[in-house]
Amino acid sequence: MKKKGEIKTCFYCNTIIAKDRLEMDHFPIPDDCGGTFTVPACQSCHDMKDRFTLESWIQSENGWIRAIINDFPSMSRETRIFLAKTMALYSRGIKNELRKPQATRPCP
Fold first, then answer.
1. Residues 14 and 30 sit within 8 Å (Cβ to Cβ)
2. Residue 93 CA, distance from chain mean position
3. pLDDT truncated to tens, each residue of the chain (108 aa)?
4. Can you say how many angstroms the Cα of residue 85 is from the centroid of all Cα atoms in its chain?
5. Would you tell me how many other CB atoms lie within 10 Å of the CB of residue 33?
6. Cα–Cα distance measured from residue 79 to residue 34, given in angstroms and rounded to the nearest whole number
7. Phi, psi for 100 (deg, rounded to 5)
8. Rg of the chain over CA atoms, in angstroms?
9. What CA–CA distance (Å, rounded) separates 70 from 7?
10. Is the full-model pTM beyond 0.70?
C-alpha cells in the first residue's frame, strides 16, 4: 500500500506522474458500470483508454494497433486471448449496431 505523499507511477506505462497530471482511473470495471477500484494513471494513458474511441485507435497515425500486435509475443497467453476476445466482442457489437435502423441506435 502506498503512503500519502508517495510518488505515483502510471498503472499503464509506469512513468512517474506529477501531482497536477495524476488521474485516478476506474479499472478493471468502469465507473459507469459500477466500478469502485481505481488505479493511478497519467493523462496520456487515461486519454487513450477512456477518451479515444476504438475507431480512432484503428485509424490512428500513431500506429496504436500496430504497437499492440508488435507487443503480442511478449504478452501472456491469457492477455492475448483476452485482447482477441475483447476485439471480437467489440466488432460484433459494431456489426449489430449497423444492422439496426438509425432511429433505434443509441446516441454516442
1. no
2. 17
3. 445 667 899 999 999 999 888 999 999 888 888 899 999 999 989 988 888 887 777 776 667 778 888 888 999 999 999 888 888 887 777 666 666 665 554 544
4. 14
5. 8
6. 23
7. -75, 145
8. 17
9. 30
10. no
